[in-house]
Design goal:
The protein is α/β, with parallel strands linked by helices. 38% of the residues lie in helices and 18% in strands.
C-alpha cells in the first residue's frame, strides 16, 4: 500500500515543485531585457541626444531624446514593453518625429546596459525619473504625452494617476499583469504568487487626462476585452482605436502613431500664440 500512497502523492509533489520554481524565477519570466547597449546611429536614427537620467534610488538610466521642432509642440515619454531594449523601438521614435513630436525614449533598469534589476517598483522609479527629466527641460504638463507599450501601459497609467499630463496613449493595455499571467498559466494560483502586479484597473480611475486605448483585434497575449474593461473603469474621456487583423506587437506599422496623433490634435489643442 505504500507504493499507492507514493504514487498518489507524486503529482502533488511535482505541482508544488513547479509552483516553487515559478515563484523563484517569476521575474525572469516577466521581464525579458536585451542588456546590450543600444546605439541610435546603428538603429538608423538622426538628431538623437543620448542622455543619462538619475533615479531617486541612485541609478543612471540611458535614454534617447529628440526635442520637438516647435516650442509649443508635444513631447512623448515613451515607456516600452518588456522585451528587447530601446533600439527595438527606433521605428516608433522615427514615426513620432515625423508627426512633429519630441520624444524621450527611456531605458529601464536592467535593460540596455543599465545597472539594476527590473521590478514593478523599480520601473515606477524609472518612469518618474523620465518625467522629471522632461520637466527639467521645460516640457510642461499640457505638452507632455505618456505613451505606454504593453508592459509600459501599466507605468503610464500609474504615472498619469500621480502627475498631470496632456494625454495617455495606451498601446496594448492590460487590466493587470496578474490577469494577463493567469491566462498564460491557468492552473497556477497567480494571485497568490505574483510579486509585480501592475494593477492598472485599480489606478485608471484616478487619471484625469484623456486616454486613447489602442488594440489589435487578434491580440492573443492581451485580449481586447481588457482594454474595454479599462475604459469602463476610467473617469477621464476615453477613445478606442482598433487595428483589424493585427496582433499584440504590430500596432505601429498599422497606423497607431497616426491614430494617436489625430486623438491628440482633437483632445489637446495647442495654446494660443
Amino acid at each position: 500500500m505504500h507504493w499507492l500512497t507514493w504514487a498518489a502523492g507524486t503529482p502533488l509533489l511535482l505541482y508544488i515543485l513547479v509552483l516553487t520554481g515559478l515563484y523563484a524565477f517569476q521575474r525572469r519570466l516577466l521581464f525579458i531585457p536585451d542588456t546590450s547597449v543600444p546605439d541610435p546611429v546603428r538603429a538608423g536614427l538622426a538628431d538623437v541626444a543620448v542622455l543619462h537620467i538619475p533615479t531617486d534610488d541612485g541609478l543612471s538610466l540611458l535614454a534617447w531624446y529628440v526635442s520637438p521642432p516647435r516650442p509649443d509642440g508635444f513631447t512623448v515619454l515613451l515607456l516600452h514593453g518588456n522585451a528587447g531594449n530601446i533600439a527595438h523601438r527606433a521605428g516608433r521614435l522615427r514615426a513620432m518625429q515625423e508627426r512633429g513630436w519630441g520624444v524621450l525614449l527611456l531605458e529601464y533598469r536592467g535593460y540596455g546596459g543599465n545597472a539594476g534589476s527590473p521590478t514593478e517598483m523599480g520601473l515606477m522609479l524609472d518612469a518618474r525619473a523620465g518625467l522629471a527629466e522632461l520637466r527639467q527641460r521645460g516640457v510642461s504638463p499640457d505638452r507632455t504625452l505618456l505613451w505606454g507599450e504593453s508592459l509600459g501601459t501599466g507605468l503610464a497609467i500609474w504615472l498619469a494617476a500621480e502627475k498631470p499630463v496632456a494625454a495617455v496613449l495606451l498601446d496594448g493595455p492590460y487590466t493587470s499583469i496578474v490577469d494577463a499571467a493567469q491566462r498564460q498559466y491557468p492552473y497556477v494560483p497567480v494571485r497568490a504568487l505574483l510579486k509585480d502586479r501592475f494593477d492598472s484597473l485599480s489606478r485608471i480611475g484616478r487619471v484625469t487626462a484623456p486616454i486613447l486605448v489602442m488594440q489589435g483585434s487578434l491580440d492573443r497575449l492581451v485580449p481586447p476585452a481588457m482594454g474595454r474593461k479599462l475604459m469602463a473603469a476610467a473617469n477621464a474621456p476615453t477613445e478606442l482605436w482598433v487595428a483589424e487583423g493585427v496582433g499584440h506587437e504590430d500596432l505601429g506599422p498599422f497606423g497607431a502613431v497616426e491614430a494617436a496623433s489625430s486623438f491628440v490634435e482633437k483632445r489637446c489643442p495647442r495654446p494660443p500664440r
